[in-house]
Amino acid sequence: MPTSTVPRSSLALRRIALFEGLADTCLERLAGECDWRTVDARTPVFTRNSDGGEVFFLVAGRARITTYSPQGREVSFRDCEAGEHFGDLSAIDDAPRSADVVTLESSVLASLRPQAFIALLQREPMVAMRILRDLAAKVRGLTERVIELSTLGVQTRLHAELLRLAHAAGVSDNQARIDPAPPHAALASKISTNREQVTRELNALAKSGLLRKDGAHALVVTDVRRLDTLVADVRGA
Amino acid sequence: MPTSTVPRSSLALRRIALFEGLADTCLERLAGECDWRTVDARTPVFTRNSDGGEVFFLVAGRARITTYSPQGREVSFRDCEAGEHFGDLSAIDDAPRSADVVTLESSVLASLRPQAFIALLQREPMVAMRILRDLAAKVRGLTERVIELSTLGVQTRLHAELLRLAHAAGVSDNQARIDPAPPHAALASKISTNREQVTRELNALAKSGLLRKDGAHALVVTDVRRLDTLVADVRGA
Predict the structure, then answer these.
(1) Which of A119, A195, A210, A201 lies closest to A158, judged by CA?
(2) What stretches in chain B show pLDDT beneath 50?
(3) Start and end of every HTH crp-type domain (chains A, B) (predicted)?
């Protein structure tokens, strides 16, 4: 990847949620152990099935964890914001990468070799506990997605995804403003369908008054409770 | 659940893979901390969305981790054999159960309260490392399943599942004997389709000579390499 090195900084590592509460001496040691680089937007950090077990800390910028089928269909998993980490699976089990990671913006990355990462987990039980909770959350999220893909139709999967985005954006007075709203193609790869079907379902929601465009980039869910009911009725939750 | 208590036994905990290599004193302490019970076949151990964070060690028997959609459709995750553990997600993140667990045979279960489980992880880094690897494996398995559900048709998903079963059963001379083969309904819930479609695809494979029934319960994959090629061609792997 086209990169330039950046100065090592324990201060920058303070921004990483995984390291919250660590002592200065510990962060200084980590800053020295990490490789540091800036990466342009739209640069692959690593690709699915490749070797390498470095753990990456996103000091600044944004990255997408995703993969592509041989037919070119994208299956996206999550977007990493500054302060998050990725790449720990391969450090833990020494197996190839499970997904592609690509930067969405120009980003600053610190990366730790797998041995140094495992040593950190053994030195700092607090960090190990966070990794356990983080993996547990991933198992839960993927389990939900398998259940949704197995039992819900495209329409309800889109409603469920909009509901997640609404709650992530913050609900106030039963409304939520998703800004920026993901492009239709990104929504499609998140719920495993095609862009056309997303566009059709979003238009149907707009027509029913549940969704409203706001400027070029934002979507407003006008009745979060009603959307919640739509999903709950199908799910039986 | 209908249960009867069984004697506490550190010897029985020796059968649990998670505890391999632990000192006798450590196992004796754990045996004392655990609740012990025998459970009949087809008994629910816990249900999705219920509270409770005990971690279960399957000393003897077999259990299925599964869930049901409101429409009654089963989505199954894995079968636990004697020596395995389950229920650790809720112990780690204090959230409700992510799936149902039901015994398939009469089983002996030891269970540890969440606080005692977390204390064990902090006392025994080897056990913590195994839980990390186990969660990483679950994230990988579920990621594959999401990718398969999102990008592969039912036919290829069935081929991929048969290939997994063949490799788990052991391949010798390019053949694998899956015994007992899962019922068609169980295969269907594993690859998120219906029983009729599984039956149709299995018949097609038998007709092509790739699969052969052997007695009442076994299936023989007659050409594992050809099955592998079928899946790889679609996956592009």
Answers:
(1) A201
(2) 237
(3) 152-225
